[in-house]
Structure formats: structure tokens, C-alpha cells
Amino acid sequence: MKIGNVDLKNKLIVAPMAEITDAPFRKISKKHGAGLTFTQMVSAKGVVRNDFNTLRLLSFPKSEKPIGVQLLGNDPYYLKAAVNELKHFMPDVIDLNCGCPVDKVTSKNMGASLLDNTAKLGTLIKSMVDEAGDIPVSVKIRLGRDSKNVSVVENVKIAADNGASFVTLHTRYRTDRYDQDAKWEWILKIKELANIPLVANGSVFEPGDALRLVNEFGSDSVMVARGALGNPFLFKRFNNIIEKGIDPGHPEVSEICETALEHLKLLIGEYGEHKGVNKAKKHIIWYFKSLPGVNVLIEDIFKFINVADLENYIRNHAKKIEENKFEKLDKDIINNLFYDKVQFWLHEESNVAP
User: Fold this and answer.
1) In this structure, are residues 235 and 30 in contact, taking their beta carbons and an 8 Å threshold?
2) What is the pLDDT of residues 147-183, one digit of tens each?
3) How far apart are CA 1 and CA 191, in angstroms?
4) Catalytic residue IDs
5) Are 152 and 181 contacting, i.e. CB atoms less than 8 angstroms apart?
6) What is the pTM of this model?
7) What is the pLDDT of residue 352?
8) Separation of alpha carbons 198 and 195, rounded Å
9) Distances (CA, A) of 193 to 151, 158, 170
């Protein structure tokens, strides 16, 4: 799929995720083969007001390109003004968030609440496209509010009619929880009707999931969110299948360990030791989530306060896995640990500047 001057060549896209897709996460993802990454979602008003925290979230060096920025807003004036400011950063795509379901966002008539007002959605997209110039504008949507209020057909059409370069479709309703199955069949339905590139999103955890969405359901590309947590290897595996027809499979424990340590080092460089160590803990759990001993790691890791002790613990933990020192856990137990203790960020209200 081509986005402006960027040809993704079927490479996967990293979804914008609050408190996740900072520079260290993006760099690790890009190193392992992601075709396009996104900064964290930022407030259009925050951009216009030059809010320091907002500008920090969307800043990036040229080495990170291609990269996209996702805006949150519901006012065409602020969205247009924000796009004008963003042009100075020269992102490769600017996206409008119409998929965030958290109450803090929807209660202000932003995010997924925009799914209910197709006409307004068209106005917002047009205001961005008119200001963006050569920078492609996209929109990320869900199927609709719920199964009785499906608005995806109308919203994809209005996006195309108002100049959006592509639509990313998260194949869940606004009211769906993340433990509910994504409804991939909608990709095929919409692709048959749409005259605009369609990026599939929702429950992509293995390269085979992305391949199915491209080959069986007709998506032009695939955006990965939770499936990339502690798993940048997914991008490399997908690209290897596309280019060579071979899946190298899950990485060895040693590669997982070294990648987790590299991610930790990047976080320390970005935030300093104290904040970097604290931010790293959830990522480290995600790296080791499918391996024996993750239950022990979850109980131990939050006590560490300095980088040296945390690095030693990670190396020793990986060595114990290789030496079969941990009891293998049932997959359901691991999934429950992942959902209950590790995915906590999905249930937090989005930290977005007003």
C-alpha cells in the first residue's frame, strides 16, 4: 500500500497507543521491520496551544521516518490549526482518532463518539485535508457504537468523499471489550464497497493473522496494537514470509532477553533512570509473557528501582528459562495473567492534554 510517497510494500503498521508508542517503542518496532509507526495520540488543542507535554509526545527525528501522528479532536478549527502546526514536523501521515472508546474521551464528544455523526466526521476530515497539503490524512474508526448502531459503511464513504488517503478499521464496536473477538468479516464487506485503501486492525497477534487479513479479507495493510507488545519479532516474521515464504518462528530466549535489555536502555536514555526503569517494567513482562516463569517475573519485577539490578534480574531470569528452572504454565493461566495484570493500561483513562 502506498501512502503519499511512502510505499509500505505490505509491511505492517504500528498502532498509536497511549503510554506505549513512545520513541523507544517505535525504534524497536522499526528495527524489527515495521513499515510505519505512529506517535501516541495527541490533542489537537494541545498542539495549537503549544502544550509542552503534547509537543514532546509527537516530536521525532528524521531517522524515525516514515512516521504518523494521530490527532484527537472534534472541532474543525482546532484540527485545521493543529495540522498547520504539524506540517513543521513533516510527518508522513496525519490521522484522526475516531476509535478511542474510553469515557474520558467520548464524554467530550471525541474519539469513538464521532462514529455517530457521519456529517460532522466528514467536516472534520475535510478541514484536515484542506490544510495538510501533500501530507496524507487518514482516519481510524470502529464498526459503530454497537451491533444495533453500525455506521462503518457511511463513515468509510464520507472519509473517501472528503479526501482521506486511507481508513483504518478496528473491527470492534465502541462497546466491545478487548477480550471479545474482532469481527474480521467486516473488512471483506467494506473492501467490496470502498474506493479507498483499507487498513485492518484488531486481534493481530501472529504473522498468520496479518496474512489472513491481507490474503483472505482483502485489507491493503494491517495495523498491529496489542500484538506488538513485547513482540516486535512479529514484524520481522511477517516480512520474512512475504519476501521468502518462510516463517522463522518465535525467537529464542536469548534474543527476547537482548531485545528487552535494548528496550530498557532506550527508555533510560529517553526518560532517565528512575522514570525509565518504571516504564520498562510493563514492557519486560510483555517480552516474557509467553515463557515459563512469567508468574514469578510479575511478582518480582516491581521491586526494582535501579537499572543495574533490573538488568541483572532480566539476564538471570532468561538463564533460568533456558535451564528449565520454571514450571510450564497452562496457556489459559498465562492469558489471564496477561489480561488481568499486564494489560492494565488498556483500562486506564487516556492521558491526553485538553
Assistant:
1) no
2) 999 999 999 999 999 999 999 999 999 998 777 889 9
3) 14
4) 100
5) no
6) 0.93
7) 42
8) 9
9) 14, 12, 17
Which residue, among 64, 60, 128, 65, has the nearest Cα to 92 in the 3D structure? 65
| pLDDT band, very low/low/confident/very high, at 346 (cuts 50, 70, 90) | very low
Q: Nearest-CA neighbor of 318 among 257, 246, 252?
A: 257
Helices (H), 40-138: 44-48, 52-58, 76-86, 103-106, 118-132
Amino acid sitting at position 78: Y
In the numeric block, which cell numbers belong to residue 147? 451491533
Is 226 in contact with 205 (CB distance < 8 Å)?
yes
Distance, in Å, from the CA atom of 301 to the CA atom of 313, rounded to the nearest integer, reads 8
Helix (H, G, I), strand (E, B) or coil at 287: helix
Grid coordinates of 182: 474482532
Residue 339 has what pLDDT?
60
Q: What does 240-282 look like in DSSP terms, one character per residue?
A: HHHHHS----SPPHHHHHHHHHHHHHHHHHHH-HHHHHHHHHH
What are the backbone angles phi and psi of residue 40, rounded to the nearest 5°? -65, 155
Cα separation of 310 and 293, whole Å? Answer: 16
